[in-house]
Write a structure and sequence with these properties.
By secondary structure, this protein is mainly alpha-helical. The chain is 69% helix and 8% strand. The chain has 6 helices and 3 strands.
């Protein structure tokens, strides 16, 4: 097409992609009792083998979500109160119901994301990942 140019990655494009991902998660999390903060806390614990030191989880949550430590600790406490995590001696672990919840949410989001990403060549996804990681690192440097 004459006059059409390929857009350059910019905050609007990144924001629109994040908003679309967020809308999918909000839809899937509806009715689970989880919100973004609690889902990320559960996921970070799962991705750490199902157990993580509470201080490390708090640090990862604050870094990933750009929230304060008290908000992160509240999310962890809510998950423990809901029986999805346990906190024992500073170690946070996923419970059996937490594993079930994690699996259910992943099962619901997996096919949606697979369809959304399916038309993008693997090389482009790898390039996008490298670019977004570099941008995130640069923005995190600005925040510190």
């Amino acid at each position: 097409m004459i006059g059409m140019t390929t857009p350059t990655l910019n905050p609007q494009i990144v924001g629109q992609a994040e908003n679309a991902h967020g809308a999918i998660m909000t839809k899937v999390l509806a009715g689970t009792g989880l919100d973004r903060d609690r889902w990320v806390a559960l996921s970070l614990t799962m991705f750490n083998g199902g157990a993580i030191e509470a201080s490390q989880l708090t640090e990862r949550l604050t870094g990933a979500l750009k929230i304060d430590p008290a908000t992160a600790q509240h999310a962890i406490a809510d998950l423990a109160a809901a029986g999805l995590l346990t906190a024992d001696g500073g170690l946070v672990s996923v419970t059996d119901p937490g594993q079930v919840m994690f699996d259910q949410v992943r099962a619901a989001t997996g096919p949606v994301l697979a369809r959304a990403y399916a038309d993008v060549p693997a090389e482009d996804l790898q390039t996008a990942a490298r670019v977004l990681i570099a941008i995130t690192a640069g923005l995190n440097r600005e925040l510190s």
